[in-house]
Amino acid sequence: MAKSCKGLAMELVKCLSESDCVKVENRPFRECAKEKSPLISSECVGLRETYFNCKRGQVDMRARIRGNKGY
Question: Which InterPro entries did the record assign (predicted)?
Answer without folding.
Answer: Cyt_c_oxidase_assmbl_Pet191
